[in-house]
Amino acid sequence: GLLAYARTANEFTLVKLTDYPDALCLDGSPATVYLSEGAEKKRLVVHFQGGGWCQGNTVDLTIAQCLSRSKTNLGSSYRLSQTVSMPQGQLSSNPDSNPAFHNWTKIFINYCTGTGHQGTRKDPVITRGVRLYFRGHNVTLAVFDWL
User: Which residues pair with 85 in a beta bridge?
Assistant: First the structure.
């Protein structure tokens, strides 16, 4: 479950979605979210992290950019911090700066697919001996199933 992970209202705890084998980052690492449990446990703020699509003027250049991205936090979950703080905006637990949602449970969906949370390619693309997974849609479905 959802609420077994968070420690404090200001702290977001990393949750790896390892029970969803089709929800993968570009490099094949498991999809993740950060969770902060609020007093209003049944009210959720779900935030999709931005990150942009892999882009290039040709398919080869696009795949090359995805390969580079797969070695960063926008393409892999392997190097993410176990906890993060998000003190401002709609994810803040401060009632002065976030009166509407400060006490809601918050989910931050990490972006690591290069597909705008939309990719559905079943088989990986192999480039330079590396497998790249385009599974953004699968990640989104896994998150909402996990909730």
Answer: 11
Both tokens assigned to 13: 């705890």
Instruction: State pTM to two decimals.
Output: 0.88
Per DSSP, the residues of 108-138 read EE---SSSTT----SSPEEETTEEE---HHH
Q: What is the chain's alpha carbon radius of gyration, rounded to the nearest angstrom? A: 16
Compute the distance between CA of residue 8 and CA of residue 70 in angstroms, rounded to an integer.
31
**Interacting residues of 100 by C-beta distance below 8 A, sequence separation 6+:** 90
Percentage, residues of the chain above pLDDT 70: 94
pLDDT in tens, 100-122: 999 999 999 999 998 888 888 99
DSSP structure string for 74-85: TT-STT--SEEE
Token output for 129? 């001996």
Task: Of 24, 30, 37, 14, give the one whose Cα is nearest residue 114.
Answer: 24
Does the pLDDT value for residue 3 go beyond 50? Answer: no
* Residue 50 to residue 72: CA distance in whole angstroms: 14
